[in-house]
């Protein structure tokens, strides 16, 4: 392409020419050819990727060979390895699971060369991408010894994609699934999507929205799903669908969807058998039931256990799984919304089938810029709990704000729940280390769309990448991920990587500061969730209103979740409950999440809450200003398209950060009746102006037709 | 990009490396540098395009100079030309209008070089693209003498794009206008869209759907429209919007939108003045009024003249125009729908303001695969009529069928209306040659979307290109356009261009044959217009039902529009009326458009209508089979992405051609009660099956939310 759109399509798989002569010479010396033992589609894909990368790095073809020559790269699955090699790697093999890999410089038949092996072809594919990543980062490849494997079994993207190609909470255009032209038209994007996911170890994708459409499990659509499954299979990726609980009524002809009704059970069994006839490795279902208006077993006086187990029984003969979402809350329940999922699910611990995973959002409300971890983590030792992160930035500035989410993910994963004593981290729980169940999983709600660079914001790619890396290994730290991604996506130059790593790592705290500092949450505007809306108090359900969450009054602000309030803290282990219950010891970042705090209460710095609130909002704005300044200095390292795009988007982010600051402070000032500190600039508009703003076509919502 | 998506983004502006050494040598000799006299943004764009192309063709930088050196390319507007040059080109200048250009090898100060000049900078930009097109086609550039100018003044794309980014009748993804991120985010696509349009001479774009939303003329959106206008301006492209007639009520606070109400007139005047404050060269409005539920002057007992002139008066001080669509028909009017626009508008001839264009679809129904020309053409000599073609393939297979539309456009443009004697072609009418009005225009309903190649089907680009070329000069023949486009878009190789030109030229007749042969029309399925639906008879308005149009019964099929029927033929000039009225002389391609013909009526070939109908359907299918075969042979000339994509799409086209054939023949057989000729294969399914098919999420319609 000679025009300047399209940069960014290649994500972190850019394989740019290596122009440093020293590195190039060493690499070419250490990578003289490729010997692939085996002919599976997956190994062919690994070989093609190596060839593609080799051509990109060195602008020449990679030699293919069938001999053990000096310094070749040798790919073979364990069972085909020459016995001598296999034996020498025994210890390494003991460490990995079926998806793991070994990359090792070995000597065999007097030749030194690098082997990539594993127990399965997909393990080798993962190893191949890892090998390439080493080169992309200009690391030494002359004497590699890497043994790695994924710590979590089901590593999934969740697409909230509708059959009409709109994407709920999607900000990167529309759905990449072109259902209308499937199964015939296989877009190159499907293949590159699979490559990208395989390169970071994602092994499953839920194609459809959790607010589900029963049509997708009809034969007309299953034919289309099968076409995608066929594309993804050799990349180690299984497809999953969302099941609409009322499907037996809507797309069958039953009068009920009662999960204990034999006809209903039979209907699902037959439907599911039909699916598996077409897609033998179909992954299973993700279900949002009795949540936000979705149908579910409660409609028939049955429990979540009844519903989940019914589906689980139907997919079990095919080794399918059911991911049942714990995201439930009821407008009829006066209990604090933050408590409801726990109250509903914890009593069922131990009653779900072995092939059921309960999918729990990272926090107890809904993907806010910052939440404490969900109290269900650790509270159901006899149930498989999987993590649901949101990669799409529903509450974090859509696709126009630069926010590096691995920092958020890491914060949750590293959190100590104390449920089995110290060091009972959330990560350990979802890795299954503290549970009696052996099925493990993690899901990320995708930020992928038809945007030419997949994610809209060029830095949205980092969140897809980072989710994948943490799903593979929750212990990787976010700084490593930031550096890796920056190098793969832009350049290895230190003058770029170092300041940009700092920028990424700071970006999540910035958004917390300019949107919801000090534990504030859910104060965005309604419906589209775009911009501030702390004043909203007129929605149909109490717990949909921001005022429900901040409870600002003349005395103070914040949600009392201690024993004197909703007592949501009682859902956490004792050490947390105790620490967070006291105003003196609760981390200030969670202050207003757990406490209703007087405006003039003095925080650790000796200043009032009001002062600190203003300070945090201002700090958030200034952090974005710093991002703008830093990015402006990066022009020489970045292609024009991405440079200007990020520059324009940062302008939006800065404008909106100020909007959040001004709207929220003006609003809360009505209650605090205190003056704004001098460091806060005069707000550009009045509170009335901010309250009057309307955005009928904000993306990510179902259009209200004109 | 090293992965294989994105090919096609560059449209016909690919500037591929010229590897033929002889051509390259001659070109480099004849194009030694560039001298641009002037610094306007438009001239800078011309220079940038030359540099970009030079680098593509020759893989080196184009020299820039400020001297008249041998064999340079010299760009200057007439008023800046050295007097001697200007004088020598006087005769050429006399031939062109303000948008025309001259490309000529001249001698000046003893140096031979090529000049590109015109009366305006935009003329030079058009000349630049023309010069590059010569090179792209490997034509001789050593002694150029080209004088060219557009024959029609307003050459517009109409985008039926909604503010929520859905596109009515759009099949290439979603709207390229990312309203939400405007005005801050200027996507590279906006610039490349402008380049592409300027390269074929399109000078205006209506950004929004004719089913209009009054929000777009509010300040919040005008700020966004202004950002696009600022991008497009230096490319010679004006922006236009659609006006919703009821806007004074919806986005103002008036109680009426009566065009004769002084308050209403004032409201529009003020609103329009506000728009021009932001966008001084705003083009004006396209209006769909009192059509298919849209509000209009009739709601207030006023006429189309009242409505159009009211808006025309408001934009006139700013040199704006109003394009008022003639696409009106009423369910309360028992008159043949084909007659209604004529009956409604012709009596108003001479009453519209000078800055009003009446925008008339090419045929009297609605963008069918084939229609006779609209009888309004020629019937309003004292009114400016503009042509509305549809580039998006609403009724021609969406973006999955390969149909080369310039063949259709040409058929209409070349048609003789006889209104002022022989050779009163439709082209002459829209060029203004037969009218007393001097404002001329042509519009194409765009097939552009977020698809990475803009149009979804790689060959959809040919229809955008071809529309632009014919808008520039309606006399260019479709074969020339096909050859040009193929060379620019794929390769100059004769073994590719020749068979593919034949394929393109045949493709339109193929779709007529497999969908609506022999003058059949409007027998598609309802709502989404996807696939056959001749049986549909239950829609709310009589003239929405296919049965209204084909009138099949036990005697025959077809719509009697002669004097014995609706007498729509009386709206045409006498020679046409006479010729088309007789079964013996009516062109068979219009047979069932104008006549109800007995099933056993013998056509010119001596076979029955029934036989011929079957023959045509089968011929259409076989023509697609031939397209499949031809394309398969083109693999060596085409990049992988486009080759496989077209191959997959042709499979869809063939499947659907058979579907049309089988469903229509089975349906009509119920009436003819005649056996299918032996050359028709056994239909794959029963008529009941075809009737039962549903496609709730077919593209191009407003989604019906689940």
Characterization of this structure:
The structure is a homodimer of 706-residue chains. With 706 residues, chain A is an alpha/beta fold. Helices cover 38% and strands 10% of the residues of chain A. Chain A has helices spanning 21-30, 41-58, 83-88, 90-95, 121-136, 188-200, 219-232, 247-250, 262-278, 304-315, 337-345, 406-414, 426-430, 460-472, 478-489, 494-515, 546-550, 574-581, 591-594, 609-632, 640-672, 687-692, and strands at 34-36, 73-77, 101-108, 111-118, 145-148, 154-158, 204-206, 238-242, 284-287, 321-325, 356-361, 384-390, 441-445, 556-557, 597-598. Chains A and B meet through helix 2, helix 6 and helix 21 of A and helix 2, helix 6 and helix 21 of B.
Write out key terms for the chains shown:
about 700 residues, 15 strands, eight-stranded parallel beta barrel, alpha/beta, homodimer, five-stranded mixed sheet, globular
User: What is the rounded Rg of chain A?
Assistant: 26 Å
Biggest sheet character of chain A: 8 strands, parallel, barrel
* Shape assignment of chain A: globular
Alpha plus pi helix count of chain A: 22
* Annotation, overall tally of beta strands of chain A: 15
- The strand order across the widest sheet of chain A is 6-7-8-9-10-11-12-13
Class from secondary-structure proportions of chain A: alpha/beta
Largest interface pair: A-B, 54 and 54 residues
Summarize the amount of helix of chain A as a percent range: 25-40%
Poorly predicted spans of chain A = 1-5
CA-CA gap between termini of chain A: 38 Å
Mean pLDDT across all residues of chain A, rounded?
96
How is the quaternary structure best described?
homodimer
Share of β-strand residues of chain A: 5-15%
